[in-house]
Amino acid sequence: MTDQEKSTFRFDSISFTVPSKGSKTKTIINDVSGQVESGETLGVLGPSGAGKTTLMNVLTLEGFGGISGGSSTLNGHSLTPSLFSSHCVMVSQADHHWAFLTTRETVRIAAQLYLPPTTDVDGVVEEMLSDMGLLVCADTRVGNQFIKGLSGGQKRRLSLAVALIKKPELIFLDEPTSGLDAAAAASIMTWLSKTAKSSNLIVFCTIHQPSTKVFMMFDKVMLLSNGRTAYFGPSKDAESYFNSIGHQLPPSTNIADFMLDLVNSEFTDKDQVLSILDTWATRPPPPPTSPTPLSAERAPHTLLSEVAILFRRHFTLVFRDPMVYLGRCLMFCFICSFFAVIYVKSRDRVQEQVLFRMFLIMWHVGVPTSLGVIAVYVYNTEFFSVKKEVKNGLYKPLSYMIANFIIQVPFMVILSICAVTISGYGIGNWSWENYPQLVIVYACGLFAFESVAQLFSMQSDPLLGMLNFMNVWFSAFLFAGVMVPRSDVIWPFRLFCYILPLNWVLRSMAYLEFSAATYDGAELCTDTGDQTCFFHVDGGGNQIIPGWTCGDNRLQCMGREGTQVLDSLGANYKSLSSENNVVNDIFICLLITVVGKAGYILLMRHKCLTATKILSAEEASKAVSAYSKSSSGLGQFEERKKSPQKAANAVDENGKL
Ligand SMILES: Nc1ncnc2c1ncn2[C@@H]1O[C@H](COP(=O)(O)OP(=O)(O)OP(=O)(O)O)[C@@H](O)[C@H]1O
Hints:
11% strand; six-stranded mixed β-sheet; four-stranded antiparallel β-sheet; Rossmann fold; binds adenosine-5'-triphosphate
């Protein structure tokens, strides 16, 4: 290995300060420094709450909710989001994979996206599977908490395989051995250590309680306590270092346990812990290094090729994961058929059944759209995988959104067909004449709800997102023009009648169904002047169809022609009428879809691409003291939580928060 090829990851004086009500600020990480070279593995250990995860978050530019200070460089170049996505990779503790893809498919997609198109992808994939000991489960689905798949250890190795296929220079691993038995943990660490050496890789990982064997596999270890360094250096020198400061490793004791016990201020004398930390702090910082070139960046894929690869993945998932669309297709079909059976009498096109035919349409509009709540959960789960993949530079968020959109459009039509065909047209005897238009209107309504579901899927808590979606759906049902006439709703609530989609879908579906047929029994209505004929008068109490009103048999006279029926219905349900508004209604639903999608795209992009900036030590201390002095300091930290990049830039430009 030449010096040119050698990479150095260095972090100096890293600090992380968060707001605290009592003392106003609390420093979680304090002056932590270290340096790791290509081929080396660094294990960061410390008692619970020592700051391991926070340090990892700061270094991977995810230090939200506080001020990150210090410097973090790869070959002397500051670690920025773009440098991270091109040269580094992060493997988080939770393995966010696509549950319905097999191991081989997961690795292959990573290879297709990371490696140049000319690469022999199959060869690389088989080699990686073999290296990681994953050949035995190559064709097994990854699985999740609901479906059986890979074991915890296999999932962890799969995460590593996907990360390493990128050929990064620096890999961050958050507790790669957590949840694994001692043998599996040792096997992963052995493999990592070998790979680091053979691939010139820098491995930075946090680790909870390593066995002596695993401890010794690290080239370097860092011991943290209360956010400060207690030791950083070669793992083999740790014992002699602690010996030199008066703490001897007792016989037959795991060195890692010994070190952790020494600095655990909850169970050990606090003065002793402080003394160990202060002793380390007196050591001089490592000398500065000059920047060296980074390895050449891999040529990025074009947007088109990323979309094509992601489209294929989505297409496969659609047919494997019933939660995405297929399950909903069946549910739509089943639920709507259930309502159609209940309203089976409305098959007859007679005066008495007009109202019930309208109610059946209303159930068709209302119930399936509520199942968009499933989409909130599906997209929320998907997002964690997408965020990880975008951060690691696998693809751009736009590629994912385009691929998702291309699949979504035809499936809205398929869902629409499933919802209305058997139930409405088969059991309910709806008029086939307007079938294509009705399917399109219904699909547009579903699409509007789907985009609202996507928007709410961006909430961090999926349950909150699902609850919010249901609130929107209930409001849409309330303001659909049946429960309460729009004109009776006071402002500003009347706005909901316009911006929620059910009103428009119901209006067009009723128009398309009723306008195309005639209804028997109207001839039985005689002109008796009986004003109790409720449905046959307009808003002003005038007869809509002169000469027709309720007869002695109290028949509800709605009219013979579809348009007459629609006007009769409209006398009571004001949003319905014989006026053809189908094009308008489709347009409004698409507008709602566009607004929902735009919100989703912006939020998704923001969540995927937002990174925190590590301020220089000077800027960080200015920012912290500006916060401490500011009476509204807490609010500014909150602002940083929401838009850390913006807040960090504000520090850059003005020297204060
Ligand atoms: N944004 C924050 N605001 C307030 N406190 C925080 C924040 N981030 C971390 N902390 C606190 O900092 C301390 C260190 O947390 P961290 O998760 O880094 O510890 P850890 O060493 O990874 O612990 P464990 O091994 O238990 O996961 C904890 O007391 C935690 O509550």
